Structure formats: structure tokens, C-alpha cells
Amino acid sequence: MKIEASATTKSKGDAAEDVALAHLQAAGLKLLQRNYRTPGRGGGEIDLIMRDTEGTLVFIEVRQRAGELFGGAAASISATKRNRIIFAAKYYLMKLTRIPACRFDVVLVEKNITWLKAAFEAA
Description:
The chain has a single domain (9-120), classed as Trna Endonuclease, Chain: A, domain 1 (3-Layer(aba) Sandwich), CATH 3.40.1350.10. It is an alpha+beta fold. The N and C termini lie far apart (35 Å). A hairpin with a 3-residue loop joins strand 4 and strand 5 (113-120). The chain contains 3 helices and 5 strands, in the order H-E-E-E-H-H-E-E. The chain has helices at 9-26, 72-75, 79-93; strands at residues 30-37, 45-51, 57-64, 102-109, 113-120. The protein is 30% helix and 32% strand.
């Protein structure tokens, strides 16, 4: 798994999402939506929304860092970032007639892929 060093930030992010998506699909998750955004400014964005094999709705943040400077990809998920993901998830859930079990996962795309299930909770 190598992401081109000379690529733009957007293309690097897209490539990391592609890697994460393939990894999660291989584990049996089904893609429902990619790059879900709430309308308006100040909202949130969710990289991947998937359903696991048990029916749980999984909101997934994909983080990619070339190195471990400043704590690597995991350290880049701030409280503000988590709050925006939670906001977007709540907005997404408003359109559903029945709310399924949900969780927030993180996939770190570094030298290896690390999948952190239930990485954080909605407050």
C-alpha cells in the first residue's frame, strides 16, 4: 500500500479512503455512502458510512499520515473533528425511519492499515 508522495492532499485522502474501503469490504462491510456532508457551513463530513455483518450502522473516519510526527494519524482526530462527525451522523440518522445500532470507527492508513472499532462515542 503506497500513496504517491507528489499527489495533492485531496488525492492522497481519496487514495487512503479507497484503501480503507477495500479493507472494510473484504471484512464484510457494505458501503452505504461515501463522503457524506451535512448542508451549510460548519457542518460535518463522514468519510464512509457502512453496515456491518450484524446490521450495525458504522460511521467511519479515515485518517492518513505519511509519518508518525505529531502522533501520527490517530492523534489527528481532535475533539472538534469527533464532534463534527457526530453532528453529521445525527443529521444522517434524522432521515431514517428506524434508528439501528450505530458505532464510530476509525481506519488509520499509515505503513499498515489499523481498524479501530468503536473508536469514540457520541456524547
